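idk why but the lab printer keeps eating my pages so im just putting this in chat instead. protein + NAP:
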Amino acid sequence: MSQSVRRVAVVTGAARGIGAAIARKLAADGLAVAVVDLDEKAGAETVDAIVSAGGSAIAIGADVADKDQVRAAVERTVAELGAPTVLVNNAGVLRDNLLFKMSEDDWDTVMAVHLRGAFLFSKAVQEHMVAAKFGRIVSLSSTSALGNRGQANYAAAKAGLQGFTKTLAIELGKFGITANAVAPGFIVTDMTRATAARVGVDFDDFEKAAVSQIPVARAGRPEDVANTVSFLVGEGAGFVSGQVVYVAGGPRD
Ligand code: NAP
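predcted complex ->
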């Protein structure tokens, strides 16, 4: 991305998986990145990779569902990197189970991380975006938003993020802020490995079964998602807002 000012991005859940790939890509694009994850030490690997490639990043420990920790994370970002004008709501957890076995805790945890987390971070960061008259908010949805067995909580949260995104697009557009959702399909990360383990299927078989349903005939990689986020947060994407971009190797409704 060519840009006159070095923009500052906050990427949540960026210690590993898709979040780490997004943080690395945005840093390679020239943004300074706050790598937010539950454990500050866990973010060190992502930060080291960015810094050794010549980029700028800091690790910040924060639970996205905790209002005070979110506020403190944004304050640290402002103090150490500058005011953030890019936010990627990526932190996520799974608590899969069939409805009749799903506990209230499974439900509440998934809502807290995905929905409350995106709400708290977007609210905390938007004032900096409004002040800058520029902002890019990207939230990680999922093909599971369309419904997925064993994921009533996760599907509801990921569908909720799509409504949240469209509403932010409507409310914040006049301040130069766009909001979009990226909805990945099957991406190889610890999360998909954990799902295979939970259902008792060898990961290679799990991946083969998933790939057999994907038109481009391969599994997704974190970089596939990172490249899409890179476009959406770029200066050139200012007329793309309130969209859900499926990154799933084929069409979804
Ligand atoms: P992942 O490998 O499990 O990474 C998720 C990261 O989020 C972890 O570093 C995790 O930290 C962090 N996190 C969890 N709860 C948090 C909290 N309360 N506060 C701060 N950070 C927290 O998952 P992923 O596969 O990269 O997924 C990233 C996003 O993409 C998620 O929103 C996920 O739902 C979405 N997605 C993934 C896929 C896929 O196929 N992988 C498909 C569609 C959508 P800990 O390690 O400390 O738990």
